[in-house]
Write a structure and sequence with these properties.
By secondary structure, the protein is mostly helical. It has a single domain, classed as Amino acid/polyamine transporter I. 71% of the residues lie in helices and 1% in strands. It is a multi-pass membrane protein.
Length: 491
């Protein structure tokens, strides 16, 4: 049965005004999406909790999450050439499940990515505040630090995707290098008791805490799927997007696994959980100080700040490109898609996003909230749930799209990968919801309010879609069909 959706829109003329064409190769896209995941931050800040709860099997948890997301990537990238918009999840869901589901996904994606970006300003403020105090003896209010961070992110993104990719490349290499240095130091000295593969023994993979930490493991890959958002700025996107997606997922899965395994070796399989319980925030700093030197611990502390900043730049880019796609389709006002005449950066969407972040920071600051337990936890947690749910919807849409496609366009491998990843990601989402207290650090009923935001946002998206269908059918018909315009890259 042939699909009833029209073919993906053709690319616009090379001289059309818009995003900078051919600006990103595989490496640039990989830098953007891996930086969004903030490897150093999720390792030093979250992996100790995974070790505390999951025990020595935690390294395998990251590897398992990587395998599931690689299966998802098979389905996701197979559909790349059939999607002509830079709306990523929004466009994919529309192509497979129709305009109503697509617009609901668009609203959830815009809210989720915006939440990820805004919430992490709390983490940036907390880490910078602690670093300034420890290293320089300077104490600043966290809202001031967060507002300075917003200004820096806005400025970097203002100058276009090429500048952002170069900045992220430098920051990502630095944070990856410090983690590799730590792991290398542990391995070179043989750890505390000699190197062991106990983390991958079957008995340690089925411990009571392993199911719970899978939520943390999947959250460590946030943003990898945003490779497709840069379609309009990529060189040969049909090849570049899949390649960047596989490289990003594969790198993070293996790197996370090796780094966390090295921490297990640093304290020994019998001692790592006890050490994590005694020094949860400082676990990684203790490892690198012991096996490399105190200077390396200070450097790691500084690089955690740059890691969070890099994540902010990457997510800012992702949010603005979703806004561009919705503007191109007529869902958002045309002004939301206004680009800088020279840098081809989405200045209006970027300023709006930064304005939302500034308002959130000021509001939480005036309320006397903690930047981590307040701004980060309560805004980021529903965003993480939202992104996982979007992955499930995308996997389902791939299955529907290829099973309805004309015979020449069918892709059996993508269908199988879509079914498998939809089931596995649905399980991961359920585990995250069931163990959301790991992220919020509370057992109160407020957890249900945080999780409940996600279905509410989806319902709002459906209501908007149904309203558009009746009141503005010409806009409804364009949902998910538009192509973000591109412009020739300037040398």
């Amino acid at each position: 049965m042939a699909t009833d959706l029209p073919p993906a829109p053709a690319a616009v003329a090379p001289d059309a005004p818009g995003l900078r064409r051919n600006a990103l190769g595989t490496g640039g896209i990989v830098f953007l999406v891996v930086a969004a995941a903030a490897p150093l931050t999720v390792m030093a800040g979250v992996a100790p909790l995974a070790l505390l709860v999951g025990g020595i099997g935690a390294p395998a948890g990251y590897l398992a999450a990587g395998v599931v997301l690689t299966i998802f990537a098979v389905a996701f990238t197979a559909m790349t050439k059939h999607v002509g918009s830079a709306g990523a999840f929004y466009s994919y869901v529309t192509r497979g499940l129709g305009q109503t589901a697509g617009l609901a996904a668009a609203v959830l994606a815009l809210v989720s990515y915006s939440g990820l970006q805004v919430g992490v300003y709390g983490l940036l403020a907390q880490q910078t505040q602690a670093t300034l105090l420890d290293v320089l003896g300077i104490s600043l209010p966290w809202p001031v630090i967060a507002l300075v961070g917003i200004a820096i992110v806005t400025a970097v993104c203002w100058f276009g995707i090429e500048v952002g990719a170069k900045v992220l490349g430098v920051l990502l290499v630095a944070e990856t290098a410090i983690l590799a240095l730590m792991a290398g130091g542990v391995i070179a000295e043989g750890g505390a008791e000699g190197l062991s593969g106990g983390s991958f023994a079957v008995g340690n993979l089925t411990g009571p805490g392993m199911a719970a930490i899978l939520a943390l493991c999947f959250a460590a890959f946030m943003g990898f799927e945003s490779t497709a958002i840069y379609r309009s700025e990529a060189r040969r996107p049909e090849r570049t997007i899949p390649r960047a997606t596989y490289i990003a997922v594969g790198f993070m899965a293996i790197f996370y696994c090796v780094v966390v395994w090295s921490v297990v070796q640093a304290f020994g399989e019998a001692g790592v959980q006890g050490t994590a319980a005694a020094n949860l925030p400082g676990l990684f700093f203790e490892v690198i100080a012991t096996y490399v030197g105190p200077w390396a611990a200070t450097l790691m502390q500084l690089l955690v700040v740059s890691s969070v900043l890099a994540s902010q730049i990457a997510f800012h880019n992702a949010v603005t490109r979703y806004a561009l796609a919705l503007s191109e389709d007529g869902v958002l006002p045309a002004g939301a898609g206004r680009l800088h005449p020279r840098h081809q950066s989405p200045t209006t969407a970027g300023l709006v996003q930064s304005g939302i972040a500034a308002l959130a920071v000021v509001a939480f600051g005036l309320a006397g909230a903690d930047p981590f337990r307040g701004l980060l936890v309560w805004i980021n947690t529903p965003a993480v749930v939202g992104v996982l749910l979007l992955q499930v919807l995308t996997a389902v849409s791939v299955v529907v799209f290829f099973t309805r496609a004309d015979r020449p366009a069918r892709h059996p491998v993508a269908v199988v990968a879509g079914v498998l990843s939809a089931v596995l990601l649905a399980v991961a989402t359920a585990l995250l919801v069931d163990n959301v207290s790991l992220l919020t650090a509370t057992e109160s009923s407020a957890n249900w309010i945080v999780v409940g935001i996600v279905p509410v946002v989806l319902v709002v998206g459906v209501v908007v879609a149904r309203w558009l269908k009746g009141a503005k059918p010409e806009v409804y018909a364009r949902v998910g069909r538009g192509t973000v315009p591109t412009a020739e890259a300037h040398s």
